[in-house]
Amino acid sequence: MHTHDILSIASAIVPERTAITFDDTVMTFAELASRANRLANALAARGVQSGDRVAVIDVNTPRHLELYFAAARLDAIYVPLNFRDRAEELRFPLEHTAPKVVMVGPRYVPLIEELRPNLVSTNLLLVSEGPAPEGWITYNDILESGDEDELRFPEADSESTAVLLFTAGTTGRPKAVMLSHLSFTEFMLTNVEPPDPDLEERTILSLPMHHIAGLQAALASVFGGRSIVMQRQFEAADWMNLIAHHKVSRALMVPTMLKQVLDHAEFESHDLNSIRVITYGGASMPPNLIERAISALPGVQFINAFGQTETGSTIAMVPPEDHVLEGVPELVAKRRKHLSSIGKPLDGVEVRIVDENGMDAGLDTTGEIVARGPRLMKGYWGQADATAETIRNGWLYTGDLGYIDDDGYVYLEGRAKDFIKRGGEMVAPEEVENVIHAYHGVSECAVIGLPDEMWGERVVAVVVAEPGATITEESVKALCHEHLAGFKRPQQVIVVDVLPRNALGKVLKRELRDRYRATGS
Fold first, then answer.
1. pLDDT (tens digit, 9 = 90+) per residue, 120-177?
2. Residue 469 CB: number of other CB atoms within 10 A?
3. Which of 199, 329, 384, 453 has its CA at a distance of 20 to 30 angstroms from the CA of residue 82?
4. DSSP characters for 279-314?
5. Residue 322: what pLDDT?
6. Helix, strand or coil for residue 84?
7. Domains along the sequence of the chain with CATH
8. Whole-angstrom Cα distance, residue 259 to residue 282?
């Protein structure tokens, strides 16, 4: 199934239903399909063809989806870039993908103007709104120039490349992940219900469209005929206002977003009773935070979704029933254990844990998580060596370490590069972090390994205190002494005001290692 089809189906079944609400703009599915078709005609008239790249640098707006579906009609490739990047950080992605079209939000025009001499392949610069600088054209002008009567349909099959998404890239240059139309639709066909004329749901889109979670959520909402309430960028008070005003029933969040909502001074004053489902993922969820959310938002079904950019979409999930912490003690204990996992593999994807030789590691044995299935990436754009290193014998090596228990749940133990090797023993940072997160007064924690002359590496905990709380190194060490084997206990505890994170809330452990390795503290 091609992603072009998901909008065609929704616009046929629920044409007058609201597809997108954005500020004062309300657009139906029929209008979204019509505008995407018109835009495709306008781009084709400007020379955009099959395989051409169409790049976007902007916060969330309806134009993202219009441009995505226009590119799909032309068999062109959608390339959303991180709008938080500086000019130097954007230079490589733009040069590497050589887009024919670049659409830019007005605040990012100066960045592209700085890089303009390098955009030798680009023959169309669009500003999403406002006046067009010299050599540019406004988005509305290009849209208005398109033929609204000629219908365009893609000619390529579902395995053709639909999107290039750049990985965060903690070392070296980022890699552009090639995802096909099937990467998205195969997930939807097995996990999302198609449009129901009698059932209307609203979902809020707060995650950026340049991230796999944001893009997947947007496309899945279109597939399901769900109305999208679009937020430019996440801000907790605005998020709660949108939920209350539009009676939103579904939300996708990362742990830092959920924490900001729960911690907000206005949390108790907002009517959030319309929310029925909150899906979370993108970063490790501290056990105390999800339990706090379960208590603070009764009636909400929580789902933990795990995936990577390379996996195209969610490949494992902790279902809502594991978030119901009621019943006999044995059942609650088992569910609490499951909450610390990334869930069971979904239908349509195979997941294994393998050792260094690629052989099955066995139950409860740590190894690398590998996956196989049609929704996974095709490879890295223009980087054959990196592709061959990641995809071996049809299996995608995720770089994540973990194990599977006898219930079939997968437990994440961190990135392979983040594992700490101490005196011949392997220490999983997430195991230590889960213990420290249980300490009263700890808001956030990251465990890293730093060089040690005698043991190879020493375990270091970097901790953020809750407002008004006092945390001492001795008290954290005492807690770890009670719950962890000797080689897993932190030899050092560093209390800081904030942890460095990327745009989606993942802690930048490489930055922490570089910082404290350099200071020697």
1. 999 999 999 989 999 999 999 999 999 988 999 999 999 999 999 998 544 457 899 9
2. 12
3. 384
4. EE-SS---HHHHHHHHHHSTTPEEEEEE--TTT-S-
5. 95
6. coil
7. 29-179 (3.40.50.980), 203-345 (3.40.50.980), 350-414 (2.30.38.10), 426-519 (3.30.300.30)
8. 14
Q: Is 20 exposed, middle or buried (0-12, 13-18, 19+ CB in 10 A)?
A: buried
With b for 16 or more beta-carbon neighbours within 10 A and e for fewer, the 344-366 pattern comes to bbbeebebbbbeeeeeebeeeeb
Number of H helices, E strands in the chain: 16, 27
The beta strands (E) that lie in 257-322 are given as 277-280, 301-306, 316-318
What pLDDT does 168 receive?
57
Within 10 Å of residue 421's Cβ, how many Cβ atoms?
Answer: 12
Q: Is 204 left (phi over 0), alpha (psi -120 to 50) or beta?
A: beta
SS3 267: helix
The answer to whether 97 touches 122, Cβ cutoff 8 Å, is no
**How many alpha carbons lie under 13 Å from residue 214 in its C-beta half-sphere?**
24
Q: Where are the beta strands (DSSP E) in 418-485?
A: 420-422, 425-427, 442-452, 456-465
Per DSSP, the residues of 184-201 read HHHHHHHHSPPPBTTB--
What's the rounded Cα separation, in Å, for the pair 371 and 34?
Answer: 38
For the chain, how many residues are written?
521
- The reported pLDDT for the residue numbered 438 is 82
Angle value at C-alpha 140, between 136 and 143, nearest 5 degrees: 100
Residue type, 312: G
In the block, residue with structure tokens 């609400």: 21
Total Cβ atoms within 10 A of residue 95: 14
Give me the residues paired with residue 318 across strands: 304
DSSP state of 155: -
The Cα 257–Cα 289 span in angstroms is: 11
pLDDT(504) > 80: no
Q: List CB contacts of 177: < 8 A, sequence separation 6 or more.
A: 164, 165, 166, 167, 309, 310, 377, 380, 381
- Taking a C-beta distance cutoff of 8 angstroms, is the pair 188, 220 a contact? yes
Q: Say which residues have a Cβ less than 8 Å from residue 486's Cβ, sequence separation at least 6.
A: none
Stated pTM of the model:
0.84
